[in-house]
Each structure stands twice: as C-alpha cells, then as structure tokens.
Amino acid sequence: MKGLFGGRNPRAVVFDCDGLLMDTEPCWSVAEAELFARRGLPFGPDEKALVIGKALPAAADAMAEAFGEPEGGAEIADELLRLVTEVVTVKAEAMPGARELVELTAAAVPVAVASNSPRALLEAALVRGGLSEMFPVKLAADEVAAPKPDPEMYLTACALLAVDPSEALALEDSMTGLRSARAAGVTVIGVPTLKRQDFPADVVIGSLRDAELLAWIRGWPRR
User: Is the pLDDT of residue 77 over 80?
Assistant: First the structure.
C-alpha cells in the first residue's frame, strides 16, 4: 500500500457509499428480491450480479430485461427506489470501521463521497449511518450526466476537491465503481462486496478496518 503514488500520499480521497461505507446492499437485495418475487421469479447470486453497483436506471433496465418487460425500466426504477428507500431508512447500518476511517482520512486530506444512488437515497443512507456531516463534497448519480461506470462522477468529484485525478484515491466495492475510477485515472483500493469475484484494483483489502490501510493513513501529515 505504501507503494501507491510512488511512496507519496494522495491529495484527496473519494469514497463510494453503498456497500463500501454503508451496508445497504442487503437493503437493495431485499427490495430487488421483492420485485422478482412479485413476478414469480427467483432471486439469487446470478440475478444480484446483474444489478450490483449499477445506477438506478441501469439496474432497473437490467431487471426489466430479466422480467421480460423491456419497456418497463422507468416504472421498475420508481418501484425499486420506493422500496429500497423504505428499507434503508430503517435498517441500513454503517460498515464496520466506516466512521473511524472517514474521520481519520478527513483529518489529513479533503474527502468526498460519490455514489450511484440518487441524491435523496444517498443522503438517507449517510444520515442513517451518522456520516452525512463528514463530507463537504457529496455527488450522486442524478447530479451527473453519466453515472458509474462512466468516469464523469470521479472527474467531477476530483474537480470539486481541486485535485488532479492522478493524485486522488478511490475506495470502491463494485466492478462498476472500479471501472469508473480507473477510467478517470484514479488509483483504487478495493473492498469487494462479492468476495469470490476477481477484483483488479490497485490494492484489494478485506475490510475498512484493514490494519495496513489504517497504519498508512495515520502516517499522512495532519491538516
């Protein structure tokens, strides 16, 4: 990890939210499984892989194809958003070590959160996890023209943080987010949600409490 950035430190850090800072994937899975069940269809790992990490419209379009309702993406998106917001508001929890990691990082460099969730859902998750006030920069999927895996979200976040993408660090849990950061030229530490998946980040760790990660960040000069 200390070999990243040629032995230097990043000038800013951009965090994903769903599945990385907040354990919302189970909430999404509850909502997604409900939509599949309403159509008499099973929901397992293969179906989850169709939607994980995707922005709401893309996830809804994938579900519409799976449902044999190719024109129903917009309606499915509305249905899914209502369901997942209800679940997130009452059940979502911060990932182990999330608050401590963000606090430690923000003491050294500017931080942002960049999420493929719509702004209302992103804010609901961050508030639920006690993370909202930690981020001066928040970017949601409905605030960019093209969400992840397009690089726009990371390019925009870096611009708002006044840092070149090559000097920024991303923490991501999904292939969709990894592709977005990579396309923007941002170094990526992966904490993959799907543990058996090949995850070609610059560094892959098992959790936000990774001892090497925390020791590295503690070595950064404080602001």
Answer: yes
Beta strands in the chain (DSSP E): 12-15, 111-114, 137-139, 168-172, 187-190, 203-204
Residue type, 166: S
Query: Angle at the Cα of 97 (from 45 to 117), degrees rounded to 5?
Result: 50
pLDDT tops 80 at residue 195: no
Structural contact between residues 74 and 101, judged by C-beta atoms closer than 8 angstroms: no
**Cα–Cα dist 188/178, whole Å:** 7
- Pairwise CA distance, residues 62 & 38, whole Å: 16
CA dist., res. 21 & res. 165, Å (int): 21
Helices (H), 68-198: 73-91, 98-106, 119-129, 152-160, 175-184
pLDDT value at 197 more than 80 = no
pTM of full prediction above 0.85: yes
Number of DSSP helices (H) and strands (E) in the chain, helices first:
9, 6
